[in-house]
Amino acid sequence: MSLEKYSEKRDFKQTPEPKTSGKNLKGELRFVVQRHDSSRLHYDFRLEMEGVLKSWAIPKGPSMNPSDKRLAVEVEDHPYSYRTFEGDVPEGNYGAGHVSIWDEGAYYHTEVEDAKAGEKTLLEELKKGSIHFVLEGEKLKGAFTLLKMKGKQEDAWLLVKKDDEFAIHDAYDPEEHFGKTVAKPKKKSGSISKES
Ligand code: MN
């Protein structure tokens, strides 16, 4: 259901992006950050919830510095199988440009460790506009908050790093960490049931 917008925007005869949803067969929730070199470079931040990837486009990319508040524009849900997508969306298509995986890993709600219960809490927080979670990525680690901005455009959120033992207090530019590419998640260990 929630993938209608995703499908509407894309012509699967032209783009190599995944068409079907795929399924997480593991007990944990996953996140991915994709560097998207489209007309304007941005980072797509995606959190698995209810079988799809809730998604935000972050123009400046995520930061490990708690004093950075990174604008994160909520975009359409993506299929779970998008988690492993890397490649080129051809010219003339929605989001034309190169997509590469910048970081990925498991994530969970800050206070609710159990994945099932945590997912329920995450969904409630998504509706309320204040999501609290811990990322276990290669680059992004520790607690973060996604906060919906008040009185602004409907889709505007802020991604902020919590000040914990993983925080980096120096200037943080995700571009400096590009190239240290995260290995593409193996389908075997994760999770894609099918892709057409
Ligand atoms: Mn994008």
Report on the structure:
The protein is mainly β. The protein has helices spanning 4-8, 115-128, 187-190, and strands at 29-37, 41-49, 52-58, 69-79, 87-89, 97-109, 130-136, 141-148, 156-161. Bound molecules: manganese (II) ion. Manganese (II) ion binds next to strand 2.
Poorly predicted ranges (pLDDT <50, ≥5 residues)? 188-196
Mean pLDDT: 90
Quickly give the structural class.
mainly beta
Tally of alpha and pi helices: 3
What is the terminal separation in angstroms? 18 Å
Taken from the alpha-carbon principal axes, the silhouette is globular
- Helix proportion range: 10-25%
Order of helices and strands: HEEEEEEHEEEH
Count of DSSP E strands?
A: 9
Strand order in the sheet with the most strands: 1-2-3-4-9-8-7-6
What characterizes the major β-sheet? 8 strands, antiparallel, barrel
Bound small molecules, deduplicated: manganese (II) ion
Beta content comes to 35-45%
The Cα radius of gyration reads 16 Å
